[in-house]
Write a structure and sequence with these properties.
5 strands, 5-stranded mixed β-sheet, alpha+beta, globular, Aminopeptidase, 174 residues
């Protein structure tokens, strides 16, 4: 990320990311991982962002916050659906504001822009996950996001996912 001089939040513009932003998007992901002392978990490359965000089968969309010619934040999102509520929404996969730009309302602007996009698309909700130890939990509380007490996020990946796929199908297991 270009660590140029950061000016007032009034200079911040939010726009859809382009393929030319892929390197800075990866840089923001790496900065966030470093902040949480989890750099080793970021496997995403510029090539991955280009393929998965701007290729033939996009898996996410992204808005970026730009100030003084530098990208200082981003909101990566994708569609989601609540089958019980019959409600379309957008899931904010990543919300990152560069350390030099925190405390200037940029995260707020990014969330509001994703919300505007959601409303424009007929969505009724926004969702996101917050790492338990993330000090930004209060930020989401101020928006009115609420922690869904009875829902836990589970993930099956890597060797465990491979093991599941290698299991023979068991009759009656549906």
């Amino acid at each position: 990320m270009n660590q140029g001089v950061f000016t007032l939040e009034t200079d911040v513009t939010i726009r859809f990311a382009s393929v030319d932003d892929a390197e800075q998007i990866v840089g923001l992901l790496q900065e966030l991982a470093a902040f949480h002392e989890r750099e080793h978990l970021v496997k995403t490359t510029v090539k991955d962002i280009i393929r998965d965000g701007f290729g033939e089968d996009p898996q996410f969309e992204c808005v970026v916050a730009e100030a003084s010619g530098s990208i200082v934040g981003m909101g990566m999102f994708r569609p989601t659906y609540s089958a019980w509520a019959a409600s379309r929404g957008l899931f904010i996969e990543e919300l990152v504001v560069a350390e030099i730009a925190r405390g200037h309302g940029i995260g707020h602007k990014i969330v509001r822009e994703v919300g505007r996009i959601a409303r424009e698309r007929g969505c009724e909700h926004l969702e996101l996950n917050v790492v338990h130890a993330n000090p930004a939990k209060d930020f989401y509380d101020r928006f009115g996001f609420s922690h869904v007490e009875d829902v836990l996020t589970y993930r099956l990946s890597g060797k465990r996912f491979d093991r599941l796929m290698d299991l023979p199908h068991l009759d009656g297991d549906e």
